[in-house]
Amino acid sequence: MKTDLDVVSPPIPEDILQRVEAKGINRRDFIKFCTATTAALALPVSFIPTVAQAVEDKRPPVIWVEYQSCSGDSEAFLRGNQPTAGELILDLISLEYSDVVMAAAGHQAEEAKLQAMEKYKGQYILIVEGSIPTGADGAYCTIGGHSAVEDCKKLVQNAAATICVGSCSSFGGIPAAAPNPTDAVSVGSLVPGATIINLPGCPVNATNLTATIVHFMTFGKLPAVDSLSRPKFAYGKRIHDNCERRGHFDAGQYAEAFGDAAHRQGHCLYKLGCKGPESFHNCPTVRYNEGTSWPVMAGHGCIGCSEPGFWDTMSPFYRRLPKVPGFGIEDTADKIGIGLAAATAVAFGIHGVASCFRKGDAMEEDKVVKED
Amino acid sequence: MAKRIAVDPITRIEGHLRIEAQIDGGKIVDAWASSTAFRGIETILKGRDPRDAHHFTQRFCGVCTTVHSMASIRAVEDALNIQIPDNARLIRNLIMGIQNVQDHVIHFYHLHALDWVDITSALNADPAATAKFAQSISNWPKSSATYFKGVKEKLAAFAGTGRLGPFQNAYWGHSAYKLPPEANLMAVAHYLEALEWQKDVIKIHAILGSKNPHPQTFLVGGMSIPVDPDSQNAINADKIAYIRKLLRKARAFVEQVYIPDLLAVAPAYLDWAGIGGGVGNYLSYGDFPMDNSPGTGSLFMPRGVIMGKDLANVMEMDEKKITEYVSHSWYDYSTGDDKGLHPYKGETSHNYTGPKPPYEFLDTDGKYSWVKSPRYMDQPMEVGPLARILVAYASGVKEVKDTVGFVLNTLGAPASALFSTLGRTAARGIDALLLAQKNELWLDQLADNMGRGIYETFNKEKWDPATWPKEAQGFGYHEAPRGALGHFIRIENQKIANFQAVVPSTWNAGPRDAAGQMGPYESALIGTPIADPEKPLEILRTIHSFDPCLACAVHLYEDNQEIARHELMVN
After folding, report:
1. What mean pLDDT do residues B492-514 have?
2. Candidates B9, B227, B356; nearest CB to A144
3. What's the pLDDT at A32?
């Protein structure tokens, strides 16, 4: 029989610890980071030394670009804890370009980007924040006089891998919400066939971003993904299945109005419009701001921000889902998300999804009456 | 000979901003501010549920997150005449208050400091002398020689790798950098400390709002975060204690690091108290209601307008006097581009007429920005912490007068020094200090309400759209970290019929209007000395002093055809 002793992590080699200490990093923080990251990646503890070695000696070049963005994902990155943004920037990666952080401006900033692209061709990690507008010959977003379309294509094609942070670069996000005034698209649509991974969410969860970078550094490839190119370690489970209020759902205990006794006692938010049953993300387990909270914990339903087209498919946000199918906890996005993805494609294609929700309303009303 | 330069991108801001300037005789003689990105979120809002608007508008910006939720929630509440419970007022004040404090600190250290601090010079600093200097300006407990030695070694090890990452290619060694190595080393240490601090104190947003960026607990009618001392799923005694701890951490850093650093760095740059003044008109909507009475009488930061730097005359703000021009913005008005329109009556369609990318320069005689030009009584207005502090100071708010007086006395500067690049940066510090000191009062009041059995955070009276009038319109105000923010909503048949945001960076970054009057950025740049046109550090100083936020600033309304299309879609 296995005991706790069997799962004690193997030690990180002393020489690695000494080298990181020489760089001014606290040894305990480093061990903590490697352990937490290994756990976030859902890897066995025996991988801790591998992770340690990967983050210790590589410092991969990273280029972070923003197009139609709100910088919310950059800000989320600054809220990261394991490791902090400061540790990442100084010790773990070489951040060659980032609008929000970098000291250089103007043509010197653009030169730094191009130089990094040339020097680290095929080796750098590209992080894209924001959608890319394809309308008006690219004039809806320009940087240094160049269109986002042109800039993004070039950078993606020369990258080792591209990480799309947030829902805009992953799926088009809010600029692509109907009627998509600027013909905004995701990176995946702009550069089909490129090596990309999507980390949707509005904003991205910094823990998932860090874990993805470290996975790439450790194994030289991106983590396993679902059919929407989202890493399974972070988007493999439905919010509803891991929700801390799931017990109340199963017991039929619902908040009926914001602020009522059931709401104050933490009952299920399904009737107040929670989209957790149709959303795949690890919010309930990882939470935000160093595990402090997440929307359901703070009394507001999930708005489904990790799903494609959620601005159209999940809104109105306070209307309860037409029906919540009784899927088992083991279901994944690939098994049950196909219907959703198809609905989303329709939304992008002919803006037809809202009417489908209208139909849902009738069903929803029926259900409410019955339950009440 | 005059030389035209373009700085694009302006980095260390939110969004995409381009500055073009004409330089002659070592000074800027003409300037143009252009926003080069556009999303059209107001278009996307039309036809949707007004109760959803705050989720959408919050995505105007992830740096000044929360602020657009606040303004659009207030716009809907104004339209439907909804009174919020006292607890909701207090929770909102706390969220707004800590947002201002955290955002200002990030601006000072991470977005603005590198305009004044030469990191490379810090490598020549003596850690012992740095400690002595730091201890002379503040009791901050970290300021030991060992500490600064550690920071210097870390910096040296980083520089030694030869891979400078985000610090490469900057204007290091520029003749306009004036600080001694020790002050630079201290600033680098505090840059790193602030990076840690900001992620901690903003956990208040996670506790009250679920997460940051983009907290999610705002509701039309209140807040969704429940208050109940007998529940683990609500704001209870534990959470009050945790928030208090974080507020004290926030205040300590502002009082013992931010303000002392500001006052220590400013004397080296006092010439910037005479540079970058700009339009000299200031607008503040006021904010932070101190009680739940209707109207704006109880606002901690008062509402008002100052024209022509006249501090003796604070005028009442009347939102009816706001118009927006598109003479130099990539939009069309059906009534003619040179006539200003009030936001409620705004009708526009985007129409890009600039050069096809890639381009070298914009045609600034024509249209040259995605930002419109808002005007108050047809005058360009500066908004932001400086406007907010000036209006409060000139209105005689005691705490503000005292704090402004303390800062001016310490620097030996007259009040007129505030009308400048340095004044803008100092006012932001003053704003952060005042709010850092005020936040705990709102927490006390929230705890007091809880103790008296008052748990209500949400007024559900008008939650159901069936209770709404057929038509309504409302104005939602907010003093965001970057200044006066207004959302204007028209509701028809329970749907958003029109939504318009006139945001701080629209006021500040707007291009010229029909009369050719420059916007505040443009105006502030005129006369700025430029030592080296290849390295226009001075432009960054003045532009960053406004704390630009361009994603917020760009918006549009849609043409009728698009409304029809969208209605088809939702119905």
Report:
1. 95
2. B9
3. 81
Q: Which CATH number belongs to the domain containing residue B556 in this structure?
A: 1.10.645.10
**Does B226 sit within 8 Å of A259, measured CB to CB?**
yes
At A356, the pLDDT band (50, 70, 90 cuts) reads very low
pTM attached to this predicted model: 0.91
> DSSP letters of A156-186?
HHTSSEEEEEHHHHHH-TGGGSTT-TT-EE-
Q: Are residues A153 and A261 in the same domain?
A: no
Q: What total of structural domains would you count in chain B?
A: 1
Range of the domain at A205: 58-232
**8 Å CB contact between B551 and B538:** no
B85 burial class (0-12, 13-18, 19+ CB within 10 angstroms)?
Answer: buried
Q: How confident is the model at residue A371 (pLDDT cuts 50, 70, 90)?
A: very low
The domain that holds A147 is classified in CATH as 3.40.50.700
Per-residue pLDDT at B570: 32
Q: Is residue A318 part of a domain?
A: yes
How many angstroms separate the Cα of A147 from the Cα of each of A110, B82, B259, B495?
13, 45, 41, 35
CA distance B264 to chain A (A): 22
Active site residue B424: no
Q: Are B184 and B119 in contact (CB under 8 A)?
A: yes
pLDDT at residue A3 is higher than 50: no
Summarised one tens digit per residue, pLDDT across range A200-219 is 999 999 999 999 988 988 88
HSE, side-chain direction, 13 A CA sphere, residue B100: 32
Residue B549 designated active-site: yes
Are A328 and A365 in a shared domain? yes
Name every chain A residue with its beta carbon within 8 A of the beta carbon of B94: none
User: Any idea which residue has 């080796």 for tokens?
Assistant: A123
pLDDT digits (tens, 9 = 90+) for B336-387: 999 999 998 876 678 999 999 999 999 999 999 999 999 999 999 999 999 9
pLDDT at B551: 78
Please, what is the average pLDDT of chain B? 94
> Of A198, A232, A266, which residue sits at a domain end?
A232
Question: What's the pLDDT band for A43 if we cut at 50, 70, 90?
Answer: confident
Q: Which two tokens stand for residue A230?
A: 């989202």
Residue A199 has pLDDT above 50, yes or no: yes
Length of chain B in residues, anyone?
Answer: 571
Same domain for A225 and A248, yes or no, is no
Q: What does the mean pLDDT of chain A come to?
A: 85
Nearest residue to A38 (alpha-carbon basis) of A294, A203, A200, A223: A223
> What residue numbers bound the domain in which B307 lies?
3-570
ipTM: 0.94
Question: Which residues of chain B neighbour A144 with C-beta distances below 8 Å?
Answer: 8-9
Given B18, B54, B68, B328, the catalytic residue: B68
Question: Which of A96, A103, A142 has its CB closest to that of B114?
Answer: A103
Confidence bin at B462 (pLDDT 50/70/90): very high
- Are both A204 and A296 inside the same structural domain? no
Number of domains in chain A: 2
Choose the final residue of a domain: A199, A216, A232.
Answer: A232
Which strand ranges, in their side-by-side order, compose the sheet holding B3-7? B3-7, B17-24, B27-35
Q: Which residue has the higher pLDDT, B110 or B158?
A: B110
Residues 6+ apart with CB under 8 A from B2: B22, B23, B24, B29
Q: To the nearest whole angstrom, how far is the Cα of A71 from the nearest Cα of chain B?
A: 5
Sign of torsion, CA B359 B364 B366 B372?
positive
CA distance A318 to A266: 17
Residues A252 and A275 in one domain: yes
Regarding whether A129 and A185 lie in a shared domain, the answer is: yes
Asked whether residue A228 falls in the same domain as residue A243, the answer is: no
Residues A252, A288 within the same domain: yes
Q: Decide: helix, strand or coil at residue A141.
A: strand
User: Residue A282: pLDDT above 60?
Assistant: yes
